[in-house]
Amino acid sequence: MTSRQNALWFSACAAFLSAVTTFLLWYLPRQYASPANFEEAVALHQNAFYMARLWVNYIHVFLALAAYAGVTYLCYRRAPVLALAGFIAFAFWAFAEALGVAINIWGVNELWRAGYAGADSETQTLIRTSINTFTGIWEGLFFVVLTTFLIGTLSLGMALWHGDTLQRALAILFLLAGPLTLIIMLDGYFGASLSPWIAWSYPVLQPLSHALMGGWLARAAYRAGLA
Q: Does the keyword Membrane apply (predicted)?
């Protein structure tokens, strides 16, 4: 196989795996109750489902970025500006989300929450302050995550638009992720109370989009081997 075909197969496999991680990011939070107070939040570091969600989230970022790189490569010749804009946006998305999740895993959970029970009162106050501070920082960082994801998915969606039926279907799913992201932003930051729309549309739209992306990339890899 050529290096081009190998790269496309790699992106296709990453896309299929990202479909699985996308589903898990919806499924795992439903396996534990949201904490009602600070003490319950501190105990989350002992919850296997919660910690699994964080690790899946971290891995998902890199799988998805590898898949988006494949899409960018295939779209670049026809729509270079849109393809490049989309990948740059997704690169910022990946960096911001991976950074936030890594701090959450190692700082918030493995250090602060894990050490809270055995700490003296002064240290507990410091840990509480640190966790509350990170919560505010993460809210701002996640707004960047949503913004860059919105730009990336709309840019690649438009870059994919002119193609055959499979490519057009993938473009539609990318473009539909735009309104979903806006709904999440309006619900989480502007009090729009749109969570019912998120609850049913995310598990339907996002895993399907990643799975179809994997199929489209796999087809391109197969055709590259015939060329």
A: yes
Q: How far apart are CA 88 and CA 161, in angstroms?
A: 19
- Residue reference for tokens 């799988």: 63
- Helix (H), strand (E) at residue 199: helix 195-226
CB 159 within 8 A of CB 90: no
For the four alpha carbons of 184, 188, 194 and 195, in that order, the dihedral sign comes to: positive
Check pLDDT > 90 for residue 20: yes
Residue 52 vs residues 15, 55, 208, 209: alpha-carbon distances, Å: 20, 5, 22, 23
Q: How many domains does the chain have?
A: 1
Q: Is the pTM of this model over 0.85?
A: yes
The secondary structure of residue 75, as a DSSP letter, is H
With residue 24 as reference, give the H or E element that holds it.
Answer: helix 3-27
User: 3-10: long-range contacts (C-beta < 8 A, 24 or more apart)?
Assistant: 4/224, 5/221, 5/224, 5/225, 7/70, 7/73, 8/70, 8/73, 8/74, 8/217, 8/218, 8/220, 8/221, 8/224, 9/218, 9/221, 10/66, 10/70
Cα(199)–Cα(157) distance, integer angstroms: 23
* pLDDT of 43 higher than 80: yes
Residue 227 corresponds to which amino acid?
A: A
Full domain range(s) for residue 18 = 3-226
